[in-house]
Write a sequence for this structure.
């Protein structure tokens, strides 16, 4: 077994070119669970948590976007000022695991694992984020919707490293909500991210833990954009309820050891409706 | 820019201010395993080995982490502080003493992790609210105390540090 701890992006990419199928270790909060339990015996590990280029985020005020390096931790995403630029991401980050997990877990790792329950992913989906990949052969960027292929499957190719994600800074309210058995240390049974944009007057809704990957609710989004008032920040109680029903209908949950499909579908309806009422608090 | 580090079965960790060679290990071992089984530091406890319980909490470069989720070999060149490095044996830290005084220790298995988490919490927030204490200690599971006396112990340290001008 080999372990490489690169300190620069070029060293990381060179190491990955030598071993294209190496386990890329970010925070370790998913991968080490599998290693500890003996479910995974990697022959090559590249630990990227000290690659300096991946450890920072930048705000581009002209493009109104934030680029988040794949090594930025959840704890860092909860801090001002990035938390003000991307409030839903800060909120989602705060629901991840525990302080110990948030100090090492990263958004890049969340993308790499691509669990349908990854707390950062509904936010990246709702914001139509762009995922950046690099290898010694070159860089490419693709929409998160193309990047997430299935349950723990992504479009990342052997030899490629997730270097970061670019998210737009929207002008409206945004938030994240999830259901689990307690507040801390919980894998979402159902999660939702709602983001609104006052400029383009749209409402985006993404669902986690209720499909093979994160789902967007096109029908519910179109319905919300038609019925809410962006001027008075209002939505009627019945329209908010209908929005929840459309979201629940868009979910594709399964029964597993954590919850039933029926429970998850119901939870999605409640969470979606609640987030819409928070975004448009007046009746 | 420093060079990449490529490791074989022999490497060195910096634990509690000392360089500690790690020999004859499998490179996939967690930091918790190496601390306990290779370096004989038995203070950090192993229970869940999946980051759920916090009993293996240590500081890596000043950040509170679960040592079971850290690949030991990836922590070369980083400063690791375990419960053994918090205070000399026989001279407990103020946090350790407060846990004793408040009756926050019963079986004691979770205690090293909670002491580490409390030190990290008070380093960041000198005078935490009860809500902040609950959130910051939410990664440490205790099955004995019901947490009331643990929260009281944290508050005692905050008050005494403030009164003595340390905070």
């Amino acid at each position: 077994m080999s372990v490489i701890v690169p300190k620069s992006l070029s060293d990381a990419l060179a190491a990955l070119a030598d071993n294209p199928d190496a386990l890329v270790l970010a925070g370790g909060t998913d991968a080490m669970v599998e290693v500890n339990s003996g479910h995974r015996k990697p022959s090559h590990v590249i630990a990227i948590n000290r690659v300096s280029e991946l450890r920072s985020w930048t705000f581009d005020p002209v493009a109104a976007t934030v680029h988040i390096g794949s090594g930025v931790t959840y704890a860092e995403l909860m801090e001002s000022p990035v938390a003000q630029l991307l409030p839903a991401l800060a909120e989602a980050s705060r629901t991840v695991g525990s302080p110990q997990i948030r100090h090492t877990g990263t958004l890049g790792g969340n993308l790499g694992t691509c669990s349908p329950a990854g707390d950062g992913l509904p936010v990246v989906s709702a914001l139509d984020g762009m995922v950046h990949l690099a290898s010694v052969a070159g860089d490419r960027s693709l929409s998160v919707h193309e990047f997430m292929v299935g349950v723990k499957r992504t479009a990342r190719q052997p030899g490629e490293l997730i270097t970061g994600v670019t998210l737009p800074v929207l002008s409206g309210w945004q938030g994240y909500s999830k259901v689990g058995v307690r507040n801390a240390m919980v894998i979402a049974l159902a999660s939702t991210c709602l983001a609104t944009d006052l400029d383009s007057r749209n409402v985006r809704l993404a669902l986690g833990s209720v499909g093979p990957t994160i789902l967007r609710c096109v029908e519910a989004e179109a319905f919300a954009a038609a019925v809410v008032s962006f001027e008075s920040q209002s939505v009627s109680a019945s329209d908010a309820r209908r929005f929840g029903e459309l979201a629940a209908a868009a979910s594709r949950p399964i029964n597993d050891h954590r919850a039933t499909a029926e429970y998850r579908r119901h939870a999605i309806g409640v969470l979606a409706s609640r987030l819409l009422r928070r975004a448009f608090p007046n009746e | 820019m420093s060079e990449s580090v490529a490791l074989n079965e022999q490497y060195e960790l910096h634990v509690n201010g000392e360089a500690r060679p790690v020999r004859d290990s499998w490179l996939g071992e967690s930091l918790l395993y190496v601390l306990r089984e290779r370096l004989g530091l038995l203070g950090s406890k192993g229970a869940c080995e999946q980051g759920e319980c916090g009993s293996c909490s240590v500081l890596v470069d000043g950040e509170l982490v679960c040592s079971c989720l850290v690949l030991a070999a990836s922590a070369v060149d980083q400063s690791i502080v375990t419960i053994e490095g918090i205070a000399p044996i026989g001279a407990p830290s103020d946090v350790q003493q407060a846990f004793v005084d408040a009756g926050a220790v019963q079986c004691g298995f979770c205690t090293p992790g909670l002491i580490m988490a409390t030190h990290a919490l008070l380093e960041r927030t000198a005078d935490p609210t009860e809500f902040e204490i609950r959130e910051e200690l939410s990664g440490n599971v205790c099955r004995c105390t019901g947490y009331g006396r643990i929260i009281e112990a944290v508050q005692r340290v905050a008050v005494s540090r403030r009164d003595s001008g340390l905070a």
About this structure: Helices of chain B lie at 31-38, 94-102, 111-124, 130-136, 148-163. Residues 86 and 93 of chain B are 7 Å apart (CA to CA). Chain B has a mean pLDDT of 94. Chain B has five helices and six strands.
